[in-house]
């Protein structure tokens, strides 16, 4: 098998791109509900509508219980029908392996695994609050310390990947695979089964300590994750001597030591399973993340009703066990990099965290960014532009999109534009990511004044110009917006999106004026070719001060002169220019 002929990741200047049939591919994905892929008949109702929403890649689960209902006997018939149907509709797939772990439980493991708790021991947790002496209780979670569990899971995963290779290698319908789903222990900070207690009593592996200590010596691109360093600032001093160190000696006598033990266990488990699959068919593979919310300032909850405590719970939880302890949260990424190098990326599920903060955490050390789950509403659709434009995302996938028609979906229009412009976005992502920015504006806050709304701005330097991006001009109610701006050299900027406006300031100290020389609306065909449509050198450029990309649904209010008009193609090019005049005639 020629690896470069199958979907694979290719490194770029600062990240990576997905290559499909020899060309870069921008995923415009969505994720179906948890069990949708268990029925090809159910999915047959959805394919056409999902394509009409302008999604080009569908994420769906393949569960261990469905493909191996009896040990050693595999049934891929339903999956085959789904792959063939997706291919017939011109859609790609990302398969989500619901093996041993799904949302901190083992609910999708086969019955023959669940019943054999002697061979496949379960996680045991305290029955009450953390720290109390309550009797232990058994939960429906396979212990990640069980070698029998990861070997059985790995055999099933390998059989799945071998089968996908056999039926799809020549077609590349399946692009990537997720390994397990939001793994970790819920209800306690760690597993307290016999196997787990034995692991906790052993010293931290010296190889892990050397890896973590060595990372602190590296250049910026290879440093430990900032969230790890924040929690363990004295790690180096804890491992200077050569003596054996316990988990509590290295990570503290707290739930953090429990969490790091579980991160090592789950990362080792996922690495074993991922490796088994890659040996059969080396597609890009990732693990997704149930995020924590230890810092309320990183929450994006403007539109969420209820108290802060409820918001913290909904957003993920503040302590290990409230969120899955041992999952690849930002402060555990380095543990996963050590134990599961087979994973190509760690992919956050982001709902209520601040979107840009999450993007930054999972782009650390030039890791490619993929968002397998995010909000399926307008807020999610707008934020995707930030991920694609500023953080070179491979794809941003709203979750639970099954019931939404193309007419109702708030992704139909923005993803339609991204689809048309993907050639230009991919070229910028690969060759000059520093010359592209993505951004968004949400629904205006109730009662916000025009001055307050102007504070909702994005500033960025592209080339020799400082850009200030705000909501687009309107006489009535301001609207949401989103966009990407790409600097094409010599002061030429490609503007994509709606509901924003941009002004330019030269970074030259000698500049006395910066304005807009030319502003042209562009037409774009299905292949992404651009052609001039209208000159926008009138009200749309406000006397050369800014370029307006209006909303599709503008509100003119009561103003009698209809100065602005709705967006047309949502694609334009403007040229900024600079005047450098002598000061005081000198």
UniProtKB/TrEMBL annotation:
GO terms for molecular function: hydrolase activity. Pfam families: DUF5597 (PF18120), Glyco_hydro_42 (PF02449). Residues 412-544 form the DUF5597 domain. InterPro entries: DUF5597, GH, Glyco_hydro_42_N. Coiled coil: none annotated. Residues 51-202 form the Glycoside hydrolase family 42 N-terminal domain. The keyword Chloroplast does not apply. Keywords: Glycosidase, Hydrolase. It comes from the Eukaryota. Gene3D superfamilies: Glycosidases, putative beta-Galactosidase from caulobacter crescentus. This is Glycoside hydrolase superfamily. It comes from Aspergillus keveii.
């Amino acid at each position: 098998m020629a690896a470069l002929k199958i979907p694979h990741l290719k490194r770029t200047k600062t990240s990576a791109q997905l290559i499909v049939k020899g060309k870069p591919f921008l995923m415009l994905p969505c994720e179906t509900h948890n069990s949708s892929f268990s029925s090809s008949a159910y999915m047959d109702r959805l394919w056409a509508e999902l394509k009409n929403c302008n999604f080009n890649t569908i994420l769906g689960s393949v569960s261990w219980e469905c493909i191996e209902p009896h040990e050693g006997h595999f049934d891929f018939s339903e999956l085959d029908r789904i792959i063939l149907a997706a291919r017939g509709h011109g859609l790609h797939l990302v398969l989500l392996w619901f093996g041993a772990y799904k949302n901190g439980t083992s609910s999708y493991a086969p019955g023959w695994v669940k019943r054999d708790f002697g061979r496949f021991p379960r996680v045991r947790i305290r029955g009450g609050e953390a720290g109390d002496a309550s009797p232990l209780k058994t939960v429906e979670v396979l212990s990640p310390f069980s070698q029998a569990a990861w070997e059985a899971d790995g055999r099933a995963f390998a059989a799945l990947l071998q089968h996908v290779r056999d039926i799809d290698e020549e077609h590349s319908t399946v692009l990537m695979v997720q390994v397990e789903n939001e793994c970790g222990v819920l209800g306690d900070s760690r597993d307290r089964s016999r196997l787990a207690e034995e692991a906790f009593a052993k010293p931290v592996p010296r190889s892990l300590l050397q890896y973590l200590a060595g990372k602190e010596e590296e250049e910026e691109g290879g440093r430990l994750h900032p969230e790890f360093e924040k929690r363990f600032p004295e790690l180096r001093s804890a491992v200077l001597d050569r003596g054996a160190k316990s988990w509590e000696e290295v990570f503290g006598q707290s739930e953090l030591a429990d969490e790091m033990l579980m991160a090592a266990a789950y990362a080792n488990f996922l690495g074993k399973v991922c490796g088994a699959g890659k040996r059969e068919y080396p597609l890009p593979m990732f693990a997704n993340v149930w995020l924590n919310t230890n810092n309320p300032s990183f929450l994006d909850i403007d539109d969420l009703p209820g108290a802060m405590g409820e918001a913290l719970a909904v957003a993920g939880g503040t302590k290990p066990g409230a969120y899955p302890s041992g999952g690849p949260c930002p402060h555990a990424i380095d543990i996963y990099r050590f134990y599961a190098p087979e994973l190509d990326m760690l992919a956050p599920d982001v709902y209520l965290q601040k979107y840009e903060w999450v993007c930054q955490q999972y782009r650390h050390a030039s890791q490619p960014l993929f968002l397998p789950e995010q909000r399926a509403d307008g807020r999610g659709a707008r934020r995707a532009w930030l991920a694609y434009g500023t953080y070179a995302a491979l794809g941003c996938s709203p979750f639970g999109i099954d019931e939404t028609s193309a007419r109702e979906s708030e992704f139909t229009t923005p993803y339609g534009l991204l689809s048309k412009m993907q050639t230009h976005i991919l070229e910028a992502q690969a060759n000059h990511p520093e010359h592209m920015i993505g951004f968004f504006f949400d629904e205006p806050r109730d009662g916000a004044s025009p001055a307050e709304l102007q504070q909702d701005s994005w500033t960025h330097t592209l080339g020799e110009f400082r850009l200030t991006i705000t909501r687009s001009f309107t006489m009535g109610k301001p609207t949401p917006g989103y966009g990407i701006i790409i600097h094409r050299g010599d002061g030429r900027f490609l503007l994509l999106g709606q509901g924003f406006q941009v002004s330019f300031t030269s970074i030259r100290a000698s500049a006395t004026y910066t304005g807009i020389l030319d502003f042209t609306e562009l037409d774009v065909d299905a292949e992404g070719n651009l052609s001039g449509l209208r000159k926008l050198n009138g009200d749309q450029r406000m006397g050369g001060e800014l370029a307006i990309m209006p909303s599709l649904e503008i509100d003119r209010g009561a103003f009698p002169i209809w100065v602005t008009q709705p967006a047309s193609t949502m694609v334009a090019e403007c040229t900024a220019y600079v005047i450098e005049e002598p000061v005081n005639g000198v």
